[in-house]
Amino acid sequence: MRLSRRELLRTTAAVAALAQTGQAQGKEGGRPVAISSANGLRAVELALRRMQEGADPLDAAVAGVNLVEDDPADMTVGYGGVPNEEGVVQFDACVMHGPSGRAGAVAALEGVKNPTKVAKLVMETTDHVLLVGPGARHFATVNGFGNENLLTEKARKVWLFWKQNLSDKDKWLEPEPDRYPPEVKEFIEQFGWDDFRRPQSGGTIHLSAVDTRGDLAGCTSTSGLFFKMPGRVGDSPIIGAGCFTDNEVGSAGGTGRGEANILVSGGHLIVEFMRQGKHPREACLMTLERIARTTREKRLLFANGRPKFDISFYALDKAGRYGSAVMYAFSTIGKRRQFAVADASGARKEDCAFLFERR
Fold first, then answer.
1. Is 204 among the residues known to form the active site?
2. pLDDT above 90 coverage of the chain, percent
3. Active-site residue, from 76, 116, 152, 204
């Protein structure tokens, strides 16, 4: 059964009305402001502090994201990220600088735990926007980045477990549940998987920032879909999808199913909705509605017509208003979806607005 446009619009209108009555997230604050995915609480705190000290918003955003990239406990970004199906960690990242209108990105980059730094160098030192694979690796090398082994022991054990459980027709023997490594048990608890044969999860950090002058920047980094095909590139390094910044309007980015975001140019679409006067939160919801309405492949839809996947968007405008929205209010393990924000009131997490409460 296809989901009707009326139901989608009714859901969006209800959440927008809730926000207008002050019951949804988002205080109208002044500048500077930094917003990110929920794994970026320390990132937005640092980005805000850097902007308060006078740093350029992109420098502040990259510094914040680097904290997450450097953290081996975060298995969705940078060092410790989950590898592709061959056990190789590949990163995607992009940056966009509002004042100059320039951008830089890398995709399928190996051996560099801070791909955002390389993306920023692409923006600053080349006539290009996106470098990929061996070309991105060579560019990193000539710019002094070593080739690090970024597959942590925890990520290796998770990947090996996935490999062992991939098929009952290969030569790997599936481990008994009582012999699962503790790292795997922790991973399953965190991401809520009951079947490693069909991984649907991944992770990313997006951070948008606006400084005291109203200058904007955006930054996105990821290790991509868990156990992805080698060379798979999602939305994170795609300017206009995983990140888009217009210094006259605002900045936005997303996490979740990158393929769906690419098809609607979600980051750009959110900024265009804000250009029309929409609040960042409403712009995020309208973009989610567009994705839900234009997703037609049966394999990607539940019986009720709703998408089988999640996408989260984060946005702020030039005035410092901010908002985030998700496809579903709760994760597969029942946790309320949140985002991180930092402004004059400090760094904190807030609940995301949502298109649908349940799958």
1. yes
2. 76
3. 204
